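Need the bound structure for pyridoxal-5'-phosphate, inputs here:
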Amino acid sequence: MKLYSTENKALRVSFEEAVFHSLPADKGLYMPEKIPALDPAFIKNIQQYSLQEIAFQIAHTLIGDDIPAAALKAIIEEAINFEAPVKFLDAETAVLELFHGPSYAFKDFGARFMSRVMAHFSKKDDQLLDVLVATSGDTGGAVALGFLGVEGTRVTILYPKGKVSKVQEEQLTTNGQNIRALEVDGTFDDCQALVKTAFNDTSLHTQLRLTSANSINIARLIPQTFYYFWAYAQLKSQGVQDVVFTVPSGNFGNIGAGLLAFKMGLPVTHFVAGTNVNDTVPRFLKKGAYEPKPSVQTLANAMDVGNPSNWVRIQDLFDQDLEAIRSTVSSYTYTDAETTLAMEELYNNYKYVACPHTAIAYLAAKQYKKDHPGNYASVFLSTAHPCKFPDAIAAEVFEQVTLPEGATSLAGKAKLATPLAVDYDAFKAYLLANK
Ligand SMILES: *Cc1c(COP(=O)(O)O)cnc(C)c1O
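Answer from helper R.:
Posting the output first, comments after.
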């Protein structure tokens, strides 16, 4: 597999280089030079395969010989070791649950696969790989639990003190082993700025082998294609012919992976993006002008993104052709009040407790069906378990949440976090004193 930069299509880098550098120096994003089609015979019989078998077929088709088949199989078996079931709420509406991994969010797919790909490429190297990551909540848990115990790696997570939920904090701070948490007396933006400064500090690079677990890493995007094919396989085995996927979107990585799957031959009719009031993409699809705005805080805070970093990938997939994007992707935007009502509606009508991100996808799926009636299964993606967002869910609905077993056991564990001021010198001193 070779990749180019969306800013320079003449560039060619190896998969390994794209994995360790996340971003090309020109600030574009890495994209596969060719999007290979999955074997049509495989798609025709896809309902016969397991999630892991489907994942291997996709990854092998994309990555080629950069990871030998046996090693790739082992990576997938270790990384994708949890379920992603499609559950019907009524005859034509279903939810694809992506929160059955260790951090209870879909980001587990990306983080777990990426960690093992990095470990695979690191074997020949002796120096420990230092992964730095700033989180507003969900990314940190997925990265921490994704890298936990992965040999040759160490993760340092910076999170804003008092600004993540209880379950999120427990996932960040109770691991020990190769995971360290820094509780920053500041905001998520402060955390991100500290990490960014570290990456730009050449004197640090001479002493540590630094890498980022950035959400735009190609090794996080690839495994997110797996569950679209897997959902399609489950639906096909139930006799469903046509599918529309609705994706709650912030940085547009998740739906971007769906569109990559589409380009590889996933036979679905359409994609719908649901956003909160951070509506840069819906405005773009309506008006044709891309006008990013500063992000606004909402109940669906993992989608509070004013300038979605993966959008350029989607434009690249469609050769910058706005009409082509419009014919495949629709989008709708919802306020917090609408999101809250949707969580209540999901509970009242279906006894289904959803997180706010999932509720936005539900609303967008419903709206699309109203605007485009038809005989297709409307499948919306549930990106996180509701237990991670207690403050965003009405108390009487949250009471109905059943905590996953793992979350109950985390609660008893000691918190391991080092306090840190918003001070780059202190951060650097910590990294160098604890090598
Ligand atoms: C990260 C996240 C999203 C947004 O996904 P993108 O790939 O950034 O569009 C949605 N829901 C939850 C729960 C998330 O953690």
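Comments: The pocket of pyridoxal-5'-phosphate is lined by residues 105, 107, 138, 248-254, 302-303, 357, 383-384 (CB under 6 Å). The longest strand covers residues 153-160.
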